[in-house]
Amino acid sequence: MELLRYKNVKRNIYNVSKSTLCIMLLLLEQIIFTIFMFTRGKSDEYLSIVLLISIMNIAVILLTHIVDGSLKFSFLWQSLVNIGIVTQLLCGVNLKTIVVINGVSLFVGAIIAVLLLTINEEKNTRKIRIIFFILDILILVVLMLFGKMVATTSAWLSIGGNSLQLTEISKFISLMYIAALWEDKRLTDKKKIKFNLIFLMTNTVFYLVIEEMGTLIIIYLMSIIASYIFCRKQKYAITMLSIIVGMTGVGIFLLFIAHLISSKTSVSIFQIANNVFLKQQHRWDMWLNIKKLSSDATYQIVTAQKAITIGGLFGSSHTYYIPAGSTDFIFVSLILKLGYFLGIIVLVFYFAMLMEGLIISYKNKGIKRTMDGIFSIALFTQALLMILGSCRAFILTGIGVPFLSRGGSSQVIATVSVFYILLSSGK
């Protein structure tokens, strides 16, 4: 009994020391960023919010300590949030916007994550999966009927003068559906593949109508990765990959046919398909055939490439304008303002979060295991795709970089994901 008590005391002291170290490192980050912002002439603005940011950092670490969760995961997450705030401020984002988005994200994210953690009964997995499927379809129907066109996609819903990106919510629900599907032990792997494909085809129809392919790419990739990780028989995972590749090929062919027919008919379905085809063709050309496009069409990506060359190792004070610099091209802004060195650190942090998330997933059981794994991979995949796209190393998908990009909807959803992983890592 005395030995057990001694071990518990020793473990508590060790955890307190780790929590203290994380807090000290995060405060050190704030000191470094404050000095850096002074060199950029933004010290007054940063000093006005640094106390709030520090309180948020400390609150997350203390919460992690209370639930006995992964301090490494918390530290990496908060470090990325801090880097995102600094980059947004250098891009000219309003101070109030930064504080409100981060504060609301933490509060709402924690509440939703706690509610989701109550979903842990194996017998309810089928019901949960059906609820997620219905919710996803309802959201996509609302978008199809009332979606607001922003930047060539109807991914937004206007409510009281504010825009809500419903595709982010749809994506999150889709990830939970996939997690619940692969955790349903009453289904064989063959049936799971079948239901996953039905879900993908249903989503594809809606996403084609609202012309939002970036989110659909994430859902497709997560379906493939989940089948590979959680499928007991790898031949089914390979079968699913083959079917998805085939579906994609057939889809591209049908879009091309619709593109040819659209000039000869005014039927709306052909016009929608033509718009989707032209938009994806434009993205493909920006990646591999940029010389084919006009200077106006390539202004965004060419400007971004120039900004990358200006940034240097530790950033530049050059007032170079980057279109969508606080959203789609936030990583390019980071390179320009903070340099290649910090850009590499950001990539390492994302990868470290992925590894820690997968370790947490491995240690858990039931639906927590699948959700932890899928959320971790989805966050990394989304960040990597957008970073590569903004640097013209991949197709530009038009989705935000988690924790870096400005955006209320995407920030809240990313925060829910990390809070879920963080809380489920607690003992």
How would you concisely characterize the structure shown here?
The protein contains 15 helices and three strands. It has a three-stranded antiparallel β-sheet with strand order 1-2-3.
The helix fraction, in percent, is over 70%
Give the overall average pLDDT.
Answer: 83
What series of H and E elements makes up the topology? HHHHHEEEHHHHHHHHHH
- Kindly report the spatial arrangement of strands forming the biggest sheet: 1-2-3
Biggest beta sheet attributes: 3 strands, antiparallel
The residue ranges in which pLDDT falls below 50 over 5 or more consecutive positions are 1-10
The rounded distance between the terminal residues' Cα atoms is 21 Å
Q: What's the overall geometry?
A: globular
Question: How many strand elements?
Answer: 3
**Estimated radius of gyration:** 22 Å
Provide the β-strand percentage band: under 5%
Count of discrete alpha- or pi-helical segments spanning 4 or more residues: 15
Helix vs. strand class: mainly alpha
Describe this structure in words.
With 427 residues, this protein is mostly helical. It is 76% helix and 3% strand. It has 15 helices and three strands. The protein has helices at 2-39, 43-66, 71-90, 95-117, 125-146, 166-183, 189-210, 213-230, 234-262, 268-288, 299-311, 330-338, 340-363, 366-390, 408-424, and strands at residues 148-150, 153-159, 162-165. It has a three-stranded antiparallel sheet. It is globular.
